[in-house]
Write a structure and sequence with these properties.
The protein is built from eleven helices and six strands. Strands 1, 2, 3, 4, 5 and 6 form a six-stranded mixed β-sheet that branches. Helix 1 packs antiparallel against helix 2.
Amino acid sequence: MRFSASSLNRWMACPKQAHFHDILDFPEQRHAKTAYGSCVHHALDEYNTNGDVDKAIEMFCDLWEDPSKIDQEITMWPPKTTWTELRDRGVACIQTFAEENRKEHRDVIASEHEFLVPFGDHTLSGFIDYLEVVGEGKDKELLVVDLKTSSRKPTHLELRMNVQFSVYLYASRQPEFWEGLENGEELYESFKDVPRRGIWYALWHNQRMDVGPREDVDNERLYRVALEVQRAIEQEVYIPNISGSNCIWCLYTSVCSAVIPIANHVEEARDARIR
């Protein structure tokens, strides 16, 4: 079975949401902040590739003016959030990122890198925002960076247990990961024994957050997750997770029976007890 890093994230957040998205392929509501994040990512890919911040900002503004150019039709706006506010925030994020990460001072070996690697009886796929080399000699490291546009910063424990980065760091050690890159075989051999570091880049705060190490036990845990997801699909068991902000930000509230109808049932049961 094939699992993407984002699909495993969805399964961990809410199996019912993953069922709607990955199994049934239901149309989802398009959240403004999702479209905003996609526009920022496209612009920063332009910057990481060519180093032209003005062109990156121009690209962002053009896409934000019409997100349908990248298949992002907005149907859902969060309260007290405006188009202008997100435009200004996006421009500020790109400017700050460029100031702190000048292209000429960095060694970015891949941007928006897509991969597909074997994982036991399964395969893992995904996109990595960029790969950067830092340090030299014994101090050399390969940074696996994921750009995040959310204003919320995760805790260190959340980062340590983040499934998406477990996928990224495992995949980066497989020879198949480097296929599609220029001199991919050379790069694999060159970085085979180089330490990896996953970076959650919180753009709104301009902060690089280290996700912590990934070891054999993390790969084993990841494989167990894949097996449990496979079992859920085979047995067609998708239990909704209604904790935290899952339901508030979910893009399937219009079709999920765990959101609105359940309140009606509770009300009916209460009235029946009163009678």
